[in-house]
């Protein structure tokens, strides 16, 4: 199965539905975490059905009015069972052949450093529960890990230290990646241009 996460920066525009549908089909994706959906809960079913009528879905609208995390999956390929839903993440498991659980978490970290402390505590707590099983964490953490992941500053901030300390405690490491190094930009040019690596996939030792 292929699992992906994408910060769509809003999914109310029907043209974005087409982009998401094309992304799923062209990459043979079985499960997608949509981040920063900005879709109100009363519109969510219509939006998801417009993308794919056959797919199942869940969201963290009970904790986030703007639906920071929406998870969609193809029920003919897998069954995702949410086990913990917070303002910044949805954690759950998929049962594979041979009765093996794979733990999957989709994350959308908020911009405020103090609020992200709840996310870091959440990851550490989940690590204790998920440690026997393979666990992958995908998403937009809204903070970089290293100075090389920010074009305008090499300074290691306290927010970055918080992030790295949490990942060490949760025993999570970056998974190998290809493609663009930076995942976010301020869409400006010249000396005003800033790019950062805010999105990543992490796995525990079992993964």
UniProtKB/TrEMBL annotation:
Instruction: From the Swiss-Prot or TrEMBL record, give the protein name.
Output: Exo_endo_phos domain-containing protein
What is the species of this protein?
Answer: Cephalotus follicularis
